[in-house]
Amino acid sequence: MRLAQPRVQPLEAEDWDEDAREIMKPFVEGGRVFNIFKTLAHHPSLTKRWMVFANHILGKSTLAVRDRELLILRIGYLCQAGYEWGQHVLIARQAGMSDEEIRTARTGPDTPGLSELDRLLLCATDELHADAHVTDDTWNGLSQLLTTQQLMDVVFTVGQYNLVSMALNSFGVQLDEGLPGWDV
Q1: How far apart are CA 69 and CA 67, in angstroms?
Q2: CA–CA distance, 87 with 78 (Å, rounded to integer)
Q3: Is this structure's pTM higher than 0.70?
Q4: Which CATH fold would you assign to the domain 63-170?
Q5: 2 vs 6, 7, 32, 93, 121, CA distance in Å?
Q6: Start-end ranges of CATH 1.20.1290.10 in the chain?
Q7: 133-169 per-position pLDDT tens digit
Q8: What distance in Å separates the CA atoms of residue 26 and residue 28, rounded to the nearest whole number?
Q9: Rounded to whole angstroms, how far apart are CA atoms 38 and 93?
C-alpha cells in the first residue's frame, strides 16, 4: 500500500445519505461492502455512472475471464495498487488461475513458458501503461488470436483498471480483511 491511512475515509452505512444508500444497495444485498465502495459512497453520482462501465468490463466483456484477470492483475501490479492486486488475485483464483499463473502478472511478458496469448496480453498491458499505445507488433499478434471486439476490450480493460488503480492509490483505500498481498 502506498498510503498507510486513507485520505478519503470509507463511509459506514450509518453515514450514507439517501443517494449513497441507493447506489450501495447491490453491495449490501451481496453481503459485504468492500472499502472501495465505502470510499466511493462519498460521490454517489460518480459511482453510479462509473459502475455502468465497470460492469461491462467485469461482466459483459468479450474477453475470457482468465484473460481479463491477467490484464487486470498486470496493470494493478504496474501501478502498485495493492488493493486491486488483492481483490483480483481472489477473482483470478475463482476463475481457475493457479498462483503460478497469477505470478506471471508480476514477472511480465518475458516470463519463460508463457503461451503466446498470455505473452501478448502482458505486452499490451505494459505498452499501454508505458506509452498509452499498443505497438504494431503486439497488435498484429493479438489480432491473430482475438476478434476486433476483444482487442477493444483489452484496451478498455487496461484503461479501466489503470483508472481504478489511480483512484485506489490516491484515495488510500486500505485492504479489506482477507485480501492477499503481493506475496502470492
Answers
A1: 5
A2: 15
A3: yes
A4: AhpD-like (1.20.1290)
A5: 10, 11, 24, 25, 26
A6: 63-170
A7: 999 999 999 999 999 999 999 999 999 999 999 999 9
A8: 6
A9: 24
Write out the residue limits of the CATH 1.20.5 domain(s) in the chain: 13-59
Tell me the C-alpha distance between 30 and 10, whole Å: 18
CATH architecture of 13-59: Up-down Bundle (1.20)
**Cβ proximity of 51 and 137 under 8 Å:** no
Q: Which three cell numbers stand for residue 114?
A: 508463457
Q: What is the DSSP string of 129-177?
A: HHHSS--HHHHHHHHTTS-HHHHHHHHHHHHHHHHHHHHHHHHTPPPPT
Looking at this protein, which amino acid is placed at residue 165? S
Cell numbers 489480432: residue: 143
d(CA 92, CA 153): 18
Beta strands in the chain (DSSP E): none
Residue among 72, 135, 74 nearest 110 (CA): 74
